[in-house]
Structure formats: C-alpha cells, structure tokens
Amino acid sequence: MMRTHVTRRARLLTGAAIGAVSLLAFAGGAAAQDAPAQPDPDEATEIDEVVVTGIRASIQNSIAAKRNNSSIVEVITAEDIGKLPDVSIAESLARLPGLTSQRLDGRSQVISVRGLGPDFTTALLNGREQVSSGDNRGVEFDQYPSELLSGVTVYKTPDAALVGQGLAGTVDLQTVRPLTFGRRAIAANFRYELNDKGALNAGTEDAGERYSLSYIDQFADDTIGIAFGYAHTGSPYQAEQFRAWGPPYPTTGDNNLVLGGAEFRVMSGDLQRDAFMGVLEWRPNDRSRTIIDAYHSTFDNTQILRGLEAPLFWGGLSEFPSRNGGATPPVLGGCEISGNVQVPGQCRPGPALRPDFTVEDGLITSGTFDNVKALVQNYEFARETEINALGFNTQYDLTDRVMLEADVSWSKAERSDELYETLAGTGRNINGALDSFGFQIQPGEAPRFTANLNYADPNLIVLTSPQGWGGASAPNGQDGYLNSPAIEDELTAINLSAHIDLEGGSAFSRLEIGVYGNERDKSLDNEQYYLVLPNSPGNLRVPDRFLLAPTSLDFVGINGGVLSYDVSGLVGSGAYNLIPNLDANVIAGSWAVNEKILTTYIKADIDTTMGSIPVTGNLGVQIVHTDQSSDGFSASGSDVAPISGGDSYTQLYPSLNLIFEPWENQFIRMAAARTFARPRMDELRASQTYGVNQQNEGSTDPLQAYFNGGGGNPELRPWIANVFDISYERYFGRSAYISIAAFYKDLESYIYNQNVLFDFTGYPVIPGDTPASFIGQISSPQNGEGGSIQGVEFAVSTPFDFIHPWLEGFGGTFSISSTESDITPNPSEPSQPIPGLSEVVANATLYYEKDGFQARVSNRYRSEFTGEVSGFGNSRTFRQVGEESVVDAQIGYQFQSGPLEGLSFLAQVNNLTDEEFTTNVNSDERQTINYQSYGRTFLFGINYRY
C-alpha cells in the first residue's frame, strides 16, 4: 500500500512538471521566432549588481549562479539582506533537486544528498570545512541561522580545488561580501512564533520570537567593507510521542505479533539560539584583497518530557526469593510459591494478555494486559552548544597572470548535555498496585490505551524504581538516570594556492595549484549516573513545592493525565544521590580521534571548442595523505585499560567536469570523479569492550574462543566511490530553466560491522584460568566491497506570465528524483539499504509576487527510508521511517514607495498539514515503533530594510 501511495504522488508531481516543461518549450520556440535575441551569457553575471529583492530576484540569482558554475550545482540566494526563503537553512536545502532532510523534533536538521545520508555530505562556511556539534561529522544545519547567510551552493560534482568535499555532495554556506555587495544596507526583522498544540507540559511556553539585525557598509573610497549580523531565535516546540519496545514486535505462543511494551508521552521544547557574524574586507589597491570573517553561536535546547511507560508482553515478573531449579534442593521462586498471585515483598506476576484479544493478519490489534506495573516518566533534557569560526583570506596579484592566495581558518564546537530521567510509580519493584491496560493499534498512528489507576495522584504515585531496573551500583533499582556526554570538536586549516592564467592557443585557460593541510581533534566524554533516593529501597512522595499540574495524555486515550513535577528543582534540592555507572559499555563510550590531513591539488580550467561547440570545465587531481589516530579505553567489568591505535595512508582522487554548449542557452554537462567520505568518528574510536567465556578455556577455535569483544576501528579507511554524472540544462532568459540529470556512483568500499580475528594477548583473564588461545573475535567496523547507487533528477523553474499576461507575477519550481541502490558490503549477506535513501524525493513551490504582494506554498515529499534515530540509552539506532509530505505556506506585503518604503509584513505557517514522523518494521504501518506529531507552527513578522 505504501509503494502505491508513493507512485501516485510521484505521478502527480511528474505530471505537473511535464506540463510546465511543455509550456516552456512552446513558449521558448515562439520566443525564438519573433523575440529579441537573448542577452549574452556574460551579462547574466551582472544580475547580482541589480538592486532587486523578493522571490523572483532570488530565483534569478540562483539560476545565474547554477548556469555559470563549472560543476553540477544547486544554489540558494537570499531574497534580500537577512532573508533567505525559509526560517531554517536546512528547510531551504531540502527543497533543492535531489536533496531532502530528516526532521528532528519537527525541524529539518540533517541533509541527505542523492540518497546518501549526512555522513556522506560535508559542510563548508565560506569554502572552509566546519566542525560539528553532533556525535560524528554530519553538520547540524539548524546551528546556522538563515538570517545571517547570503546564499548556499551545493556541489553535486567536485573539482580538484574543492577541499573538504563529500562523497554525496558538498554544502557551502556563504556570508555576504560587503565590497562585492557594493552599497550600504540595514535590515531588521522580527517574527512572533506560535505552535497550535499549545504548551503540552506545565511550566512551558507555546510562543516565542525571532529577530535579527544586519548592517553592511563601505568606507575609504570603497576599499574597506564591513558586515555585521546578529540573529536571535526563541522557538518553543511541542510533540506527542509514542515508542514501542523493540523492534521487532514479540511473538506469542500462537505465533501472533503483539506489543512488547510502550512509552507514550508529550514533549515541550525550547530552543534559544544567539548568533553573530562579522566580515571585514579590505582592497587597498587593484592587486591585493583581504577578508577576515568570524562566526559565533550559542545554541541552548531544553526539553521537558512527561508520560507513561507500560511493560506489556515483555514485562516479566519479579519475585523474592529468585527461583533456582538447579540448586540442591531446588529453590522455589516467590511467584511459584504464591501461585503467580501478587504478594507484597514476594511476587509481582508478569503482565498477562486476556484471551479476548483481536488478531488481524498475524498481529494482535487490540486486547487487554493485566498485572501491568507502569512507570511515570518526568524527564528534563538540556543541551548547551557553542560554535566559533574564524577565517582569514588574502589574495595578491603577483603579475597580470599570476595570483597567490592564502587562507587560514579555525573552528571549534563544544557541546554538553544533561539528560535527566526520573521515575515514579505505585511502589518499588515487587511492591505497589498493578493495573490493567487496554490497547488498540492504529495503523500509521499512535495506539490508543486505557488504564484504571489515577497516575496523577501524588499519594499513589511516588518517586521510586517501579520495575527495579538498575545495575550493580543500584542494587535496589535506579530511581532515575543522568546521561551527561560532552563533545569537543576543533579544526585548524591552511590552504596555500597559486592561480595562473594561461596564454591563448591552449585548451586550458587557467591553472590552480595548491596545498591544503588541516588537523582535527574530536572527543566524546561519556559520563552516566544512576539517580538513587537516599532512603532506597524506600520511596519518596514528591514534595508539594515541586508539584505541577498533571500532564494530559489524551492523544493516546489515557484519562486524568500523569503526575508532573519540577525535575531540575527536585534534583537541585538533593533528592537523589548520583552514583557513577561504571559499566564497561559506558566507559568504552568515551574516545578521542585525531586526524592530520595533507592535500596537494592541481586543477586546470578548460576553455576550448570541439568543432563549433564551446567546451568549458576543469580537470584535476587531489593527492590526500591521512594520518589518523584514536585514544580510548578497553573495558570488561572492573578491568579498564587505556588503548590507542591508528593508521596513515595516501590516496588519489582525480576529477573531470565538462560543459558543452551545442545550442545557445543549452548546456550538456558531464562529470567523472573519484570521491570519498571519511569514516564516522565513533567508528574510528579505539575504545572497545571485551568478555570471556570460561567454557571455551581449552578451545583453540576462534569461533569458540575464550575471548570476544566489540568496539571501533582506528585503522578504518574511507568510503570511496567512482561517480559519473550527465545533465542537460536549458535556460530561458534569466528567470526560467529546465534540467534533467542522471548519476551513477560505484562504491569501491563500504563500511559495515563484521566479526574479525583479534589477538587478546596481554588482556586479563579470570584468576586460575589458562586459555589455550588468546585469538578471539571482535565485532568492529570494517571496509567491505560496496555496491552502487544510481538515479535521475528532473527540475524546472519558471514564471507563468509566458502562458498569458494575466498570470504575471505567478511562477513555480518543481523537482523530482528517483534513486536506487544495490549495496552488498559482505558478499555472504543480502543487499541492504543505505541509511538516508528515499527512492522518490519531490519538491514543488508555487508563488505569486507583484506590486509588493507575495505568496508562496511549498511541498516537499520523500518516500520511506532508513533513518538514524536515538535508541535505548541515547545510542545510534536505524529505523524504517515512513514517507513524509511537508507543506509550508507564506504570504506578505512590502511597501515599495512612500514613507514606508522598505517595510514589509508576513504571515507564515510551517507543517501546514501536521505531518507526523513515524518509523515502523517490516514495512507494516501497523507495527509502529516511533510516532511523533509536532503540530503547526505559525509565524507573524515584520521586516525593514534601508
């Protein structure tokens, strides 16, 4: 059913695009007969010097930049100073042909290019590689406010001078250049923001604000230019969330699937971001140019989550004493003694499914579980992030044909999290009232539940460990948990190059030779703690001063809400003891990675003819030497030792871009390159865990080994692909174009987890053991054989006034792409999907702009894909994410003359149709694992430009 839906939507979007193309072709043919000749292509480069604003100006500038680039690119340009098309740069990127995004908490955060996820795409700021506040390399684009960017270029094909390039693509974020801008400008805007779900948690807000200020000017006879910008975001957001235990869904004795357990809660978040941008540009003479730019942002994100967790089929029992049938004489468990009847201190029977359940196609879709011991969740997550970036670039014309350039940059990201999870229930572990939970599956939505107990009663629901979960450090069960990781990422780089204009008579017009070096250090400090009440195994009633209004769970049918309280106030009062979690997996979760990279490159620009056909482009090669290392910990139980590793290697990456212009304003582009993506940082970690199996003490068979383990691989090599692209582009003046492109990526290598032999010599053994062999197996990332990715893209952008003068001011942009993959990293295993790949991605925007009025509606669609989400313990987990169709709309008016000239108003709504985020298993919408509904966000704003 899902594939049919994808096909129908793709047909609709394709039909609309084909209709637009047909009209464009007809209009183009008619214009060729009696219209004046088109402007010379070189004149199109002057478009940036025309003082125009608005949607059509942005489209014109983007088309000009796309046309004039020597690579296959997609371009976004600002409608005006401090005014990109969307409030988030990630939202704008997701509308480009072949690009899409994955939403986090309702907002686009990471980008997929041509079916490859964020790990395969690099981000640059003014041409310089950037650090990431995430756990790995993928840049979180919501860290960069759109108000401070003048444009974005996405390189789908690389050239040799593009440093920091990605295997899928390279996203270059650009700030304004004041001397190139060429005039004074002041811009300010303010937007009020509101979510239609309201404040779902007590003590939170549902309204916020955004405002920004930008200033650009030139001095000293236009030899000095400055640009400053400040942007603030105070954005509350809401979500209704459901998560099923698993995957997979467990199977009952009669071979039917059923819910193993469920969490349902509401989340209220608040994102506070302050960002500053500064640029100083100096041109003392015609030969020398220097630019210094700086960027700083602080990004604080707080989330309050409250709800219930209900262990169901997988709930299990708890008893004292614990049963031990192997003892002599056998020890009966507490529930065996009681006949599986609840007895305080002796038996808490496991959940039992009543026999009157309903089965549909092998899935139990409704029923009731008795003996459920639910947990009341009150969570508070806080994240603080700071990003700083500095860049210095100077160019000097040594002669009329030789230009020397030096670029030095530094960027650093620091992130700290405090993720508090506190629990409450009817009593500790065995003790406390049990409940009956009814459930009904809703395909593609959150299930509906019923319960009998009042989970908002502070006399019934107390702070405790309802299920008794916890490790050796919390023997009576954890009453909560604190996950407190810290990330630090620092990158220093220098790029020295020479640009040489070649004399005529050659097929090459310019030569660029350069050396680029950088050093990057990234570390993760993984601290985790059990929260334990001082009177454990006792319970604690929540003090009245911390109690808040109950939180409603009406979206899943639970009446009366749940107990709610001020988590930070409670923790700050000393209600809990913090006990470090010394589990081996936690200790081995800390790591540090260092990379030193030296890239030598040469690029020759092509400017020649093939017969009567002009041919341009470039040819080049990069020689990349990498020296990588990692430090971490090897841990097993209480045995912890430092461990390190690394590797160095040199690889060659050639590239070729060719542009043919067989007819005026029509281009055929061809590209071939060898590209790469460096491994994820956590895959390069040296840290590992290991264990022993005493039953294999005498074995010399590695498959039946005494030692086994798992961890990272600091000797890991990059993903490598040979890529081939071809595209056809036709331009109709400055405002319209159509393009069709095809690409093929042959992955030489792919990274996947594999069991490999490992020498555990020197690792500690259990006292008294004498292993026959120290050779065992370790599960770690390895380089596999790869596979292929191929796809086609189609895009059209046009105003509609060529159809009829009545349509002046109307226009649209449409794109659709189809991508397939065949990835088999291990020849002995079946093909597997690439994370982030949607087979169909489509975007459509219709706009109207005339006499100061503006209106726009946009839809971006992606079919189902494998996405990366947070799993148990905030770990990285892949899930099958359902298809999405997100609609945004905007309307506004700008005064174009008189005393109010430069003033404009707008109203905007994001996620107009309240599109949910869902993940499932077995491509079955009924087997939902994650469900989140974010609501609609309304923005009302005022802008002023002088």
Question: Your description of this structure?
Answer:
- The protein has 946 residues and is mainly beta.
- 8% of the residues lie in helices and 54% in strands.
- The chain contains seven helices and 47 strands.
- Strand 43 (884-894) and strand 44 (903-910) form a beta hairpin.
- The longest helix is centred in the N-terminal third of the chain and has 33 residues, at 2-34.
- The two termini are 54 Å apart.
- Residues 1-52 have low confidence and may be disordered.
Features:
five-stranded mixed β-sheet; 946 residues; mainly beta; 7 helices
Short description:
The protein is mainly beta and 946 residues long. 8% of the residues lie in helices and 54% in strands. The strands form six sheets. It has a 31-stranded mixed beta sheet that branches. A five-stranded mixed beta sheet has the order 1-6-7-4-5.
